[in-house]
Design a protein that fits this description.
Helix content is 42%, strand content 24%. By secondary structure, it is an alpha/beta fold. It has three domains: 77 residues; 246 residues, Aminopeptidase (3-Layer(aba) Sandwich), CATH 3.40.630; 90 residues, Alpha-Beta Plaits (2-Layer Sandwich), CATH 3.30.70.2390.
């Protein structure tokens, strides 16, 4: 007969065995779950690059789809060396404002001399930019009536600028960066200057606005003060449009200098200049990532367009009247990234060249004709800059890459999209051969 102690001992042993059995079952179930999750993860990651499949399964705005997009972006950038912390696509508004001269808030009541809407696509590693003339005729929100767009910031700050662009172009501004003359001076000086070809003699003194410009024609390295003068000069008969073209030309050479390997050591100083002298809704971390991203961009993958329109004089006031049809074409291409099935075989080429570049023009004409293109030419006495101008929506940066390989003489051309055909010889794309 079992004693009480024996019975209690047997019950204890049974409880131990039961706990072991339960633990074993739990471990088996847990192991099965882990295996299933791992298999699912492998399948999901296998299809991760097939964005349409993931979106169909989980939904485009789902947590999983968004995280896999980040994963894909990380994989892309491990290969290319760029940061994946920026959104894959966003619109950044760059404003350059004047001085209010009142010594208080340096941003309040200032007009925008420079307005560039920049669309970056970190997955495609491309930048599109639309330069908006300060004289654009707009209707400002809030019963402020008809004004030039440069007055939007003076009247209502960045919020009014963003709302005006939204109503005028149907475009949302994701981030903004506002700089003034002092920002440009310090940034260019910290960069070590920007090498550029100054296309004409520029001399102008504004004692009230404290703007003094004294630049000679020719190759030079602009320091900070000279860069401000180059970007603000408008006394050349072309007014705001001449200044806008110089902003585009400066942007090309600024990006080239930013890509210089020596610039890497200057990034902390450059970011510090931005931190101290800009008004922005971007964090220091975002600015650093943006600066690093810009350094990795291929120059030929920067597409620039002037907001299409034409000058108009009303009394003593000059306006830039936008062309709504051509403007929408530019927005669709540069902001929404609409693409077309391009046919490169039936394009007409144009060459605009100044007298000094006749020999270069003849060489390029022969090479284009050997590729099977019809070529129209136009000789002018003076052209400031050398550019590749896309006059047709079929002429993309991919086509530009193709032509550059076939015609090495245009390797250093700046790529411009201009559907208004201001620079055109009845052509789909025009090679403009200026002095530089």
């Amino acid at each position: 007969m079992k004693t009480v102690h024996e019975e209690e001992y047997n019950i204890f042993l049974k409880n131990i065995q039961k706990e072991r059995d339960d633990t074993s079952k739990f471990i088996k179930i847990l192991f099965a779950i882990i295996v299933a999750v791992c298999l699912a993860a492998i399948v999901v990651l296998y299809f991760a690059e097939k964005e349409s499949v993931i979106n169909n399964i989980f939904g485009e705005d789902s947590f999983i789809a968004q995280k896999l997009d980040v994963y894909n972006h990380a994989q892309d950038n491990r290969k290319t060396g760029t940061s994946f912390f920026l959104p894959k696509r966003q619109n950044i508004l760059l404003l350059g404002v004047d001085t209010n001269l009142n010594g208080t808030d340096i941003w309040r009541g200032t007009r925008s001399d420079t307005m560039i809407l920049i669309n970056i696509d970190t997955r495609e590693k491309t930048i599109n930019a639309i330069t908006i003339p300060r004289d654009c005729k707009v209707i400002l929100p809030g019963n402020h009536g008809i004004q030039k767009i440069n007055s939007a910031h003076a009247i209502g700050g960045i919020d009014m600028v963003k709302k005006t662009l939204r109503e005028m172009l149907g475009v949302k501004v994701d981030k903004y960066i506002i700089v003034n003359d002092e920002t440009v001076r310090q940034f260019v000086d910290a960069l070590g200057g920007v090498p550029i070809y100054v296309e004409k003699r520029m001399h102008y003194n504004d004692y009230t606005g404290k703007l003094f410009i004294n630049l000679e024609k020719g190759d030079t390295v602009l320091n900070g003060t000279q860069a401000v003068g180059y970007l603000r000069y408008r006394k050349d008969g072309l007014g705001d449009i001449g200044r806008t073209h110089r902003q585009q030309w400066f942007l090309k050479h600024f990006m080239k200098k930013l890509k210089n390997p020596a610039t890497v050591t200057k990034l902390p100083e450059l970011v510090n200049v931005l931190h101290q002298n800009v008004k922005t809704d971007m964090s220091i971390f975002e600015l650093t990532q943006l600066a690093n991203y810009l350094r990795g961009i291929d120059e030929s993958h920067i597409e620039i367009a002037l907001l299409p329109g034409a000058p108009n004089q009303k009394g003593y006031i000059s306006y830039w009247i936008i062309d709504p049809v051509k403007t929408q074409e530019v927005i669709n291409r540069l902001i929404y990234r609409d693409t077309v099935e391009a046919d490169y075989t039936h394009l007409t080429a144009g060459i605009m060249f100044e007298t000094k570049r006749t020999e270069d023009a003849n060489i390029i004409k022969t090479e284009l004709e050997e590729l099977g293109y019809k070529v129209n030419t136009m000789q002018l006495e003076y052209l400031p800059h050398t550019q590749f101008v896309a006059n047709n929506n079929n002429v993309t940066t991919k086509f530009f890459d193709y032509i550059r390989k076939k015609v090495p003489q245009i390797n250093n051309c700046q790529y411009i999209f201009d559907p208004t055909k201001n620079y055109s010889v009845n052509s789909d794309f025009t090679i403009v051969l200026g002095e530089k």
